[in-house]
Amino acid sequence: MNPNPRQAELLALVQRTGSQSVEALAEHFSVTLQTVRRDMKLLEQAGLLLRFHGGARVPASTTENLAYRQRRELNADAKRRIARAVAAAVPDGSSLILNIGTTAEAVARALLQHRGLRVITNNLNVAALLSSNTACEVIVAGGLVRARDQGIVGEATVDFMRQFKVDIGLIGISGIEADGSLRDFDFREVKVARAIIEQSRQVWLAADHSKFNRPAMVELGRLTQIDRLFTDQPPPPPFGSLLADADIDCVVAEH
C-alpha cells in the first residue's frame, strides 16, 4: 500500500514506541476512533503492523524479543500502574522472588517504602533498586549475567532458586496466547521462571495489555499455574473466561 501522510505517521509512531492504543492515536491525530481503526486495518492488511484489542503494535517475532531499552519504554505508564497494584497487595514482612523484566523493575520501585521484605531476584536492576531500601533484605541469584538487560540465567540460577520457598513469586511474561499458554523467548530465562513457580506458595503474573495474544517461541507454563494476574486493562476475549475457569484473581490497575 501507499499510506497517506496520517497513516505513515501512525505507522512511524507505532514502530517507534512498539505499540499504541486506539484512543491515544485518535487523540494524537484529532480524528475519530473509527478513523484510527480503519487506518490500522489497512496497515495490518499490508503486513506493516498487528492489531490487538484496543490498539496496534509492531509485527511480532516468535523468536526474538524487543530490545531492552524499547521494552523499558513500551507501555511505561501501564507498568507503573501495575507495579503500584502489586505493591499494594504485598504485605510487609513477606518473602518474594522477582524475576527478569521491565515490569519487575517497576514493581521494585513501587516496593521501596515496604519494610521487612526478603527479596530474591535474578535481576541486577531489581537488586540495585531495592538495595536502597535498608528495611529490606535482597538476595541475588548466581549465574550468567546477560549484558543486554542485567538478567541472570542458567542452570546455576535454577539451582539457586530451588533452595527457597517464598510467599510470593512474581513473574513477567512476553506473551499469553489464547490457548492459555504463557510464553517467552529465551529458554534459559524460561527454566528460571519455572523454578520460581515451583518454589512459590502464591504465583503472581504481571502483564500489561500488549502481552495478550502476543506470540513467543518457548512455553513457560499455563495460566492454570497462576494465582493472581495484575494487568492494566480488562483482558480481551477469550482470556476473561480462561481466567474465570482457572479461578485466577485478575486485578486491573487503576488509572
Mind explaining what this structure looks like?
By secondary structure, this protein is an alpha/beta fold. The protein folds into two domains: 5-57, Arc Repressor Mutant, subunit A; 68-252, Rossmann fold (3-Layer(aba) Sandwich), CATH 3.40.50. It is built from ten helices and 15 strands. Strands 6-5-4-9-12-14-15 form a seven-stranded parallel β-sheet, with helices on both faces. A three-stranded antiparallel β-sheet has the order 1-3-2. A three-stranded antiparallel β-sheet has the order 10-11-13, with helices on one face. It is elongated, with a radius of gyration of 19 Å. The two termini are 37 Å apart.
The second-level CATH architecture of the largest domain is 3-Layer(aba) Sandwich
Strand sequence of the main sheet, in spatial order?
6-5-4-9-12-14-15
- The stretches of 5 or more residues where confidence is low (pLDDT under 50) are none
Computed over alpha carbons, the radius of gyration is 19 Å
Cα end-to-end separation: 37 Å
Q: Report the sheet-strand fraction.
A: 15-25%
The helical percent reads 25-40%
Helix and strand content put the structural class at: alpha/beta
* Count of extended strands: 15
Number of helices: 10
Please state the average pLDDT score: 90
- The overall number of domains is 2
> What would CATH call the class of the largest domain?
Alpha Beta
